[in-house]
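debug: dumping io for the single-chain case to check the tokenizer round-trip. Nothing else runs in this session.
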Amino acid sequence: MSGPPAGDGPEPALFSWEFATDPYPAYAWLRTHAPVHRTTVPSGVDAWLVTRYADARQALADPRLSKNPSRHHSDKTGIPGERSAGLMTHLLNIDPPDHTRLRRLVSQAFTPRRVAAFAPRVQELTDRLIDGFADRGEADLIHEFAFPLPIYAICDLLGVPAEDQDDFRDWAAVMIHHGKGPRGGVARAVKKMRAYLAELIHRKRAALGGGDAADDDLISGLIRASDEGEKLTENEAAAMAFILLFAGFETTVNLIGNGTYTLLTHPAERARLAAEPALLPSAVEELLRYDGPVELATWRFATEPLEIGGQRVDVGDPVLVVLAAADRDPARFADPDKLDLSRRDNQHVGYGHGIHYCLGAPLARLEAQTALGTLLRRLPDLRLAAETSELRWRGGLIMRGLRTLPVHFGPSL
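debug: decoded output
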């Protein structure tokens, strides 16, 4: 990517094809000239974009900015289909005290111990996927690697039976527009996923209540946590499983895809990481900061008049915190447009900040470290099979990721 000049040129066009390819020059302009900027997003909603690091941290933690879409009357501020499928009551759409209650329940099931114990399975999935294309000498690392790895991993963690996981892969593909069907199919895919999750929760609850051997999966843990204390309604349970699945795979698809692309286009840092695998944890943090998977934090809505970065925001106004802009802010990060895999002072906001900080971040980090480390070890001469100008980026509002990542390589190790 070109890297942003500070620039005093004209106001850049947002949400164009050129912007999707490289948004960072536009974000540099906004940080300098209009750090809290009113604009119309592609869905037609008028919203404030917050682009400076200090303002972003303030907004992400401000209780006056609600996550509840009912604060705004548009149906264009969430995941397509979640409202009609009855999947609104999840952690990305609610405020305390409901958020506190549901996050506490999920945290009891989504423990660091569970994630750490899952590491061998992530390695097994990673090797199996590479085995599937290693002898060909070429692959599309989005469709054949970055996409299936997190969907199979989160299905395993949730407790989706192996025989049903390909259905989830198909639904997920439609939801993030990897499928070949029309965009309108997203809502249908969400409804199918919701119906399946409701039935799966019912079966697992019945098994637990009937004294069957308890499964050590996330949905069973969530049911146990609920049944032993505060109750989850069926809608809440299905919505929680849905958002853990949706947020747990799409962000990781883009983290692995963007991270691999960044390493392939920065050969010195890639060689450094290959020679020093101990850098993987800090490398993943830097990749999250440099070109992370979540470009904008999910919607927030002002519940009272407030000021962000000197700009008045009125009641009901939608606010979008631009994580990608905040994480390139020179007021916070030294030489922010340089990739430095050993960067020490790296308190990025790639996974948010405050009470809505990403609950699945430890799993995403585990998957990214495993995926990138294994690619570098097993395919040491991995290289792009297309010019960077030929690659296409998905132009969604919240996520940032490549549509495809064609590569060549020699025999697998």
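debug: round-trip ok. The first strand starts at residue 36 and ends at 40.
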